[in-house]
Amino acid sequence: MAYSDIRVYSKHLQTPNVIHQACIGNWSSQRDYEQAGEQPQKPGQVDMVFAKVRSLFYNGDIEREDAELTIRLFDRDTNSSRIMAVSALQNHIKLVILKSTRRSQFNPVARISEVDLKGTIIGMDFLTSNTDEIAILAVLFHNKETTKYHIATFHFDLQNRLPGPLTIQVGTSQVVSSPSKSIVLLKALPNIDRSLIYVDEEKITLVTVETPTGPGASNTPKHTYRSSLQLPKRDCSEDVNETPSGLFATDMLPLISACATPPPSPNPASDQTLYLGSDTSELYRVNIQHLTLSMQFELISGDRPVGNVMQVLARNQFAIVPVLAEMDQEIVLNTDYLVYSNDYGDGGILAIKEEEEGINLFAITELQNSSPILDFCAREPSLPGRDSLYACSGMKGEGTLKRIRSGVSIESSGSSGQEFFAGATGLWSIKENVGDAFDSFLVISFIQSTKFMRSGEVGSLEDIVDGCGLDLTQPTVNAGRLWNGVIFQVLRSGVIVAEVASGTRHVWQSDDGIITSACLVKEGVLLLGQISAGVSSLLLLEFKNDTAGDLEHVPNSSKVIAKITLKAEPTTVHCWTQWSNSLEGVVPGVDRGDILCCIGTLEPAVIVYQIKSNEMLEIYSESLSQAGLENVAIPHSICLLKGHKGHLKILVGLRDGGIITYDWVASQEQPFSHSPISGMGMTLPRLFKVGVLPVKFVFSCNGFVFIVDHCDLQLVTLMGSSKYTHQTLALGRTPRRILDITSKKLLLVASVGEGFPFAESRLHLIDPDRASYEPAMEKQHVVAEFVLKQGEAVYCLAEWKIPRPGKSDAVYICIGTGLFSPTGSKASAGTPKSGRLIVLSVKQSKKVERKSRKFELDLRWAMGMQNPVIAMSTFMDMKLLISNGAVLKLFALDLEKKTLVERASYTGLSPIVQISTQGSMICTGTKRDSICFYEYQPGVNGERGFDKIAFLKSARFAKMISDCIAISPEFVVGVDMSGGIFGVGYSQEDPNCQHTLLDRFSFHLGEIVNRIRLARIWPADIRSMAGIRLLQTANKNTPGEALTLQTSDYSKPSGGQLSSWILLPWTTPEHSASADAGFSSQALIGCSLLGSILGFWRLRPQVYQILSLLQSTVQTTYECRPILGNSHDRYRSLSSPGANTIDGNLLAQFLRLDHALQVQMITRAIGMGRIVEEWIRQTGMSPQEHEFFTSVLKTDAVDGTAIATQCLAHPQEQTLCRTTNTICHILRYLQNIDWHQQ
To answer: For 1057, phi and psi rounded to 5 degrees?
Structure first.
């Protein structure tokens, strides 16, 4: 594969998790909306804006700024924000007067003024004022010349409408605080007029501000420093192994990291509540008396580390009658809803409720935060679709290993507990009559019996033992309402239908088999899954009342009206009765009255049938077999959820505790995926685990209930909007490095914990299959540990496989470390003085079962090094490359002596931080010299000769590399500490490569990416999901009788075709000589310190031409411009000149625009039509596929509503429409693509 022409598509797969700022408010008033002709906001709606690391979010548009910003809003009128202050890191503040504006033409700036001060700005806030004529901005800053902290207040005259700068009065005072103590934050007090507090390392101090009453520069605002409150000391002995003295003293003051106040109280002279959070898990509540200005502390939580952001979302007030009789006045209590961030763990939203006895705290939800991600691995799957990212996430006690998978997550809303439903195998809630508002009966099946219960008036359940007509001595297969007043019970031996009121019943007996599954098709008709001697079948069983002719009586006859044979035993059946009429028009080919049913079989497989006039026609089948895997994905339960815009979601519960989800939509709206029948809207399925034993769905509505582990009912909600699911594997330490031990299906994690005088490093061997959600079992996934020397830090890990003749490969784990030298009782400067190369082996205990397997990390040997071992890589012929400072060393394994022998070395100019190899080519990343290429030259006399590492070339631009990966012997991709990604190449034939490596592409990400990994490549014709190989079969019945799902004259390409037309894989498998052979969309994956997941794909040159021309147009379009007006090209070239890269985040805005505006933008892109037509011609697509690409693609607005996309009538404009539609299809494919999906 040639690497001389590299074109890259970049996008965020997961945006940053860390929150650096939050702003709560109602952005537009009622009258402003009425004047603009738009709909007002709903009463009580709260808008929340998060600033995630140099990002300002407003209405979904994002612009990243290179300079650090602090933003504060002044909102005297509760309906609209009037003035905004934006500060630089030091010396400068910009004031923006805001006005009402329309969303379609966003221009809220009425006036801009600036103020200057001399110092580093730490914090600022607008003070509460009793008049609308002025606004007061308080600023806390540090003057480097005087080394003092100061508070400045700027008083703005809002009544001045004259052009020019605002009239400002400034008051400045030196902060009253110990010179050796840092001041960490400043906060205004909404309930106390013209007052603020500041917090240093020891205390909280209250300050009031007096505004001059008369005009003139001589009248200067005055600051009065009021009472102070000493911060409470905390006991840290438990955190540092009860160290009584030294670096960690037992009595330490908390370092306050964030502060929040509730909204202003409507009642005058109200006391002020203040919340203070620390990064050491304390959450305090401070009450400030309005009259006396006295302060009082209260600790309300000690296990929630708080980052830089804490905000009160809302306050609810309620009155209670006092318990004491002598108190005749009601007591007003508050509930505050507090959102907080965590810089190195999950944040959350809390409800803090005042009660007569004290304060109660309730956790409402978590705000997931994966940052900082110091390392990650893409676990090598045995089959496509099983790819998981394991990220070293968090720090200290919040340190975890997070498993990140593409899929649909679930959220549990409650659990029944094990007491009532212990041993339950099924549950059915039944209405006696279809028009009843509530369910009347509850049927619970156990392994050897059934419980029948009636619902009482106040929600109670009453056992019915006799006289109901049902058989309660056997387990129930299914139960429900046959028609009004009559319910059915399906047993393994037959079916009972009964009228509960009278106990009258009718029994149908299965004479030639056992019933394994059943469901209601329509009133009076059941679908049964049956097995007999060597035969599996489906039966349509109809019940009638021939005498009365009234469906309100028990039937007196029953017969089988249809029967078909299956290849395997049916394990579950589900008919979509409540959706049947609405399926018309949603699923092509479904007529009114037709019924679709889904069957799960023991094969295992999922089959979809259409029941049409008592005939059952197979329209779709899919195998769920897992070749070579222990678990078998046998369907255990099936249900269907209906979403917005007619989208259907099929859920298949598995016996192994997993859930498979399909999306089924009309073919013209479906995402790109394989389809067994043209027009079929079944998308790529996703799998996620919820337990270890069968999942049984009970009912579906906004949520659904399923039985977990045969002992518990879980009420859960399907989180369809979540693209990635996160599973947390707790460590309680800071994870720094991770290695996927592919031969053992284990993970090795190096972590750092508290210690004295050094932090303690430890290796954890983790079995990810043993992860549990149970709190008591939160660390059962750690199967072995290895403790390193005191003061030893792990820098790199590698798996080394040594071939052995006639045996399996010997597997060793290589660890590179650095040793810190002490100076007295404390660690020296932050660089290690020496290092070690450690080699371990993994041993498994032979007497332990597979499910509870135990391991040991056995030390084989260790070698001391003069410098730390920062990077390493396995090499050809049982060799190992390591970096020892700036020296690149090559070691070979001596099997006889069982030791490592140094064979060659090369001394560079700067320390090597990463090594990657391809064949005999060696690539290194350094701290100052960017990327360097070397060539390994073996000795001419074999083992007795001298090997050599020859330097070839280095990159043109000096960079501080954080990671690099050799894609081929001629091409390397690297990431640097400036937030950029780039590719460089080496070619002996190219004359431009005489002095330096050739630049292939570069792009500024704005985030520091520590690690990049390459996803595995798969043949494009393999459709899979989470390790389940899917074999597709189409309907073999007569075409005229079967359900035809063809809705148009065009044919949608498969995912493999789309991938081969749009993308090129980064690598070519050895068994294929061409990149055009049809492979999956291979991604280059990166994780950043901020918790982002980024994906990079290689584009075909002509697709790059199309998107590059579109990118130039989008960045100059008013509707897509950055909020703060930055140049896109300038920003993406901050770390190095941007080249040959498409910004997927920017182009995603194009799909949000209406069709007419899209066509206007394509009109400005000169030559776009010709390039698109040339690309279509070169793909060789059929006329039907060409018609699909030029058809209209429905897009979604920002608010989720569908945008009508009607092509224009003029012939020339129709040509532009077809070009626009083609580009939209390309962008939609790239927008939906994942790191392991086609």
So the answer is: -65, -45
Element (H, E) at 419: helix 418-421
Residue tagged 């290690």 (tokens): 832
Look at strands 1141-1143 and 8-14 and give their pairing: parallel
pLDDT at 413: 53
Helix or strand (DSSP H, E) at 575 = strand 570-575
Distance CA 696, CA 1025 (A): 21
The Cα angle at residue 192 between residues 259 and 94, in degrees rounded to 5:
65
Residue 589 identity: G
166/548 Cα distance (integer angstroms):
90
3-state secondary structure of 784: strand
Q: Which two tokens stand for residue 166?
A: 């605002």
pTM of the complete model: 0.73
CA dihedral 645→661→1019→1047, nearest 10 degrees, is: -30
What dihedral do alpha carbons 910, 913, 916, 922 form, nearest 10°? 10
Taking the CB of residue 507, how many other CB atoms lie within 10 A of it? 15
CA dist 197 → 166, 288, 372 (Å):
26, 11, 31
Tokens of 702: 């906004």
Q: Are 8 and 971 in contact (CB under 8 A)?
A: no
Where do runs of H (alpha helix) occur along 1063-1148? Answer: 1101-1114, 1128-1131, 1144-1147
pLDDT digits (tens, 9 = 90+) for 635-684: 888 877 665 555 667 778 877 667 777 766 544 443 333 333 333 445 55
Beta strands in 289-423 (DSSP E): 295-301, 310-320, 331-340, 347-355, 358-367, 373-379, 388-393, 400-406, 409-415
Task: Return the residue matching tokens 């052979």.
Answer: 1077
| Count of helices and strands (H, E) across the chain | 10, 86
Spatial contact of 638 and 600, defined as CB atoms under 8 Å apart? yes
Q: What is the rounded distance in angstroms from the CA atom of residue 408 to the CA atom of residue 412?
A: 13
Q: Which helix H or strand E contains 951, and what residues bound it?
A: strand 948-954
Q: Which of 506, 694, 532 is nearest to 600 (CA)?
A: 694
The DSSP secondary-structure symbol of 770 reads G
Separation of alpha carbons 478 and 834, rounded Å? 69
Q: By three-state DSSP, how is residue 357 classified?
A: coil
Lowest mean pLDDT among 105-119, 883-897, 1000-1014: 105-119
Side by side, which strands form the sheet with 961-968? 961-968, 971-976, 980-985, 998-1004
